[in-house]
Structure to design on (285 residues):
């Protein structure tokens, strides 16, 4: 999928003109290294495929299984919401976010890792269904690379908002954020925000109407049922909407966007590794 091209021509990521894969600069626009070390063609082919949305689902599922393996008593809870629920220690180790990890323990990078973790089987089941339905559509409209950038921006803004509210409004009804939070829903609301932005920029009023209905339903659900992180949802929506506006979905996606999206995935992986390494050090004390 990411096979390196060593000879021939590729499309310049900046201006769209043909350039040699080994050219130091594009003769048309002056972009340095337009061949992206031989990966420009592979990144362009990757854009728009279902591979990256599937990778989001696979990553969430894999980390959920890891969190279960790190939990001694999987069947301890009898309630439906506790079905196959990983232990809090396992989730903390893998990078759960919130006011306690971010501000209490200085684990600021968890705003990236928390979107890949889930609290029980029902939680991950619903979120994977949303990712399956939304991520390919956003990737089709924006390109797979920009979809990953939107996903990451929503995660960062959503969990930063929840953690900050958890610090500032602890114990305040309605306004209270989360001391301990996780889940892909912040990024899912970011994908909804991206669809709203696309509808605004393209003039698709019907799309905006449908997506706003989903957003309102999600907000009502969050206020009716306990344990829902509304700050993460609101922040994720805002982050996804802002990122989508900046990325201009009406312009063609470039290989550089896909590369940036893959770097976001790498940053999320680094954040999980950092959580495990620092968490093990804390447990060893």
């Amino acid at each position: 999928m990411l096979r390196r091209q060593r000879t021939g021509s590729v499309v310049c990521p900046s201006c769209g003109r043909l350039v040699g894969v080994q050219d130091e600069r594009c003769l048309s626009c002056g972009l340095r290294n337009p061949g992206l070390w031989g990966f420009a063609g592979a990144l362009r082919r990757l854009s728009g495929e279902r591979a990256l949305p599937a990778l989001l689902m696979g990553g969430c599922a894999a980390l959920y299984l890891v969190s279960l393996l790190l939990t001694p008593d999987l069947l301890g809870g009898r309630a439906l919401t506790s079905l196959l629920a990983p232990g809090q220690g396992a989730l903390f180790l893998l990078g759960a976010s919130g006011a306690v990890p971010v501000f209490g323990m200085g684990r600021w990078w968890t705003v990236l890792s928390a979107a890949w973790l889930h609290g029980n089987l029902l939680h991950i089941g619903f979120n994977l269904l949303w990712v399956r339905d939304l991520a390919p559509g956003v990737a089709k409209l924006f390109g797979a690379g920009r979809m990953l950038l939107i996903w990451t921006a929503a995660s960062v803004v959503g969990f930063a908002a929840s953690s900050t509210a958890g610090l500032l409004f602890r114990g305040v009804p309605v306004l209270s954020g989360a001391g301990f939070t996780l889940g892909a829903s912040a990024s899912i609301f970011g994908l909804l925000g991206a669809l709203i932005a696309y509808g605004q920029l393209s003039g698709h009023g019907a799309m905006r109407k449908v997506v706003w209905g989903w957003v309102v339903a999600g907000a009502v659900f969050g206020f009716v049922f306990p344990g829902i992180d509304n700050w993460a949802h609101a922040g994720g929506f805002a982050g996804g909407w802002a990122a989508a506006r900046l990325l201009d979905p009406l312009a063609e996606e470039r290989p550089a966007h896909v590369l940036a999206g893959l770097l976001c995935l790498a940053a999320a992986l680094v954040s999980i590794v950092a959580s495990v390494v620092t968490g093990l050090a804390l447990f060893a004390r």
Q: What stands out?
A: The first strand starts at residue 9 and ends at 11. DSSP finds eleven helices and two strands in the chain. Residues 9-44 form one domain. The first helix runs from residue 40 to 46.
